[in-house]
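Deliverable D5.2: sample structural annotation.
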Amino acid sequence: MRAIDALLDRVSTSSLQDPAPDGPVLERILEAGLRAPDHGRLAPWRYVLIRGQARIVLADIVAKALQYRDPDVTPPMIEKQRGKFLRAPLIIGLGAHLRPDHKVPEIEQLMSVAAGAMNLLNAIHAEGFGAIWVTGANSYDGHVQAALGFEPPHSLAGFLFVGTPREPVTPARRPALSDHVIEWTGAPVR
């Protein structure tokens, strides 16, 4: 697969099954994450691999965190959240090891983490697997973050759910370039 084809064909998918990448293939994927732009050479990326029985432990932590955030949460809502962490054979916690005291602004450090995550998604696809990047309340919850080793100022930028797509992935409809690209000629843009 040519690199440009892999970039243009990649789509997110949450319908995943075994196998997930492992061994040298997973190492190549993780190495790709470390090739993201890194202003200041701070290497802010931290990847937490969660698989096997550890997914059940994480699902339980997520359920408890949800109950703590919302005491009125219903059992079906709890099970739905737990289920999200049990469907994919591999979860990669996207850690942001931030240095707020550094001259490189935190936003640039976070952008490096995001660029690393995109490299991971592209590498996962190029290796023939599927993935989806999930954020939200569980990613930003202090209990979940602490369980994975991220105490402030460090944090999670989300989770990659990784595995083999259950079915062929349908290409996503992409926006028109003309809606997102202009050529600036020196005149004010409106």
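Annotation notes: The longest strand covers residues 155-165. Residues 9-167 form a domain with the NADH Oxidase fold (CATH 3.40.109.10).
The annotation will be released with the project's public dataset once the embargo ends.
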